[in-house]
Write a structure and sequence with these properties.
With 303 residues, the chain is of the alpha/beta class. The chain contains twelve helices and eleven strands. Helix content is 43%, strand content 24%. This is LysR family transcriptional regulator.
Amino acid sequence: MRIDQLRYVAAVMSSRSMRQAAQALGITQPSLSQQIQRLEEDLGVVLFVRGSTGVSPTSAATFLEPHIRAMLSAERTMRQAASSISDARVGHVYIGAVPTVCRTILPTAVHQFRQEHPNIEFEVTELGSHQVWEGVTNGDFDLGLISRVASDAPLNAVTTVDLIASQTVMCVPTDHPLAHAQVITPEDLVGEPLIVFQRGFLLRRIFDEMNIDGRLTAIFHTASIDTARALVTAGVGLAVLPEIGIPEDDVASGKYRVVPLEATLSATITAAIRRVDEYPSPPALGLLNILRTLAVSRRGVSW
């Protein structure tokens, strides 16, 4: 049994696809299949059932998954501990983050961190908040950057550090009748073509709460804030977006208009999360400290 074989199994468990897992790992699909087969032979169990539409984990794989992820987490912790012996001058930081953070505060934080630690490598995966939380609790990420509603109960199994409070707004084509509204309510959006985020994103949850009676019409689903803004600019529809993720230049140049949502729908928080049972590695802790400093000084700053 080798640690890379366990990493391969975890990747397939996450993606449910040999092809996608092989692409993410940077190896060929035949090599991935061969290594998993060798692990199956070593353990004496079948881990995946192969089919025409992909792979499905067996009951044995489901039973072993938490042990596999615990071993991968332990391996990463050991490597980070070894790195810390040399003053954290080398190492990796694995981050899961929502797209808004990847386009705002995170690039500035990484740039500042690398001024002092140029040999630290970062691997950032863009996902929805729920998937980021899953990745942190599974040990896939050292640090997660999510969006949450202020009134939410604390997340299980993680420590949460709130960073930036923001508002959720509607992006509206400039020639749309709602472009000059003072505030937009769900009733205003009945019959309007809406661009919404895929499930797992906080913005999708906000849309679902707005659409509790099923009267709103989603015409486009995306996981990209850039795509949503481009669609609004093209006049395709209206989009629910975080105010923090809207460039001031877009509004100043008239690409689209930004209108507040009614207050009960709009308050969100950008937060950092880490596993409650693991102390962060020195590089991850250093990045988190920079994020907190940037968040405190953000008021009046355009990312």
